[in-house]
Structures are given as C-alpha cells and as structure tokens.
C-alpha cells in the first residue's frame, strides 16, 4: 500500500480556480490575497451570512425598546 504524497486540491471559494493545498498558495483556501480580500468584504457587507436568528440584540438597531424583556 503506497501513500500518495500529492497535495490535495480544491477550488478557490471566490473565483473557483483550482489550487492545491500547499505552500505554493499561502492564502489557502484562496488562490490569492485578492480573492481572500473579496471574501472578507462580502462578510463585512453581509453579502455572506450564516442562516438563523441572532441570539443577541443589535445595539445599533432603531428597534431597541428599553422596556423589552431581554433573554
């Protein structure tokens, strides 16, 4: 039984370019710093979200009611 020393490959989450999980791609799982920053910007602008309800109140919300019962 021989083990393959080939690095696993995957697609960049941003541009879908195939990359290998190695030191050739220091921004893994992204292919470049540019794709990494694009992804970060999507999270910051809420383009990417994790489904579900927030368990915390939004302290910047206009809907805060001082009489509302908190969890």
TrEMBL record:
Keywords: Metal-binding, Zinc. Zn(2+) binds at residues 12, 15, 31, 35. Binds 1 zinc ion. Pfam families: YacG. Its cofactor is Zn(2+). InterPro entries: DNA_gyrase_inhibitor_YacG, Znf_NHR/GATA. Inhibits all the catalytic activities of DNA gyrase by preventing its interaction with DNA. Acts by binding directly to the C-terminal domain of GyrB, which probably disrupts DNA binding by the gyrase. Belongs to the DNA gyrase inhibitor YacG family. PANTHER family: DNA GYRASE INHIBITOR YACG. Interacts with GyrB. This is DNA gyrase inhibitor YacG. It comes from Microbulbifer echini.
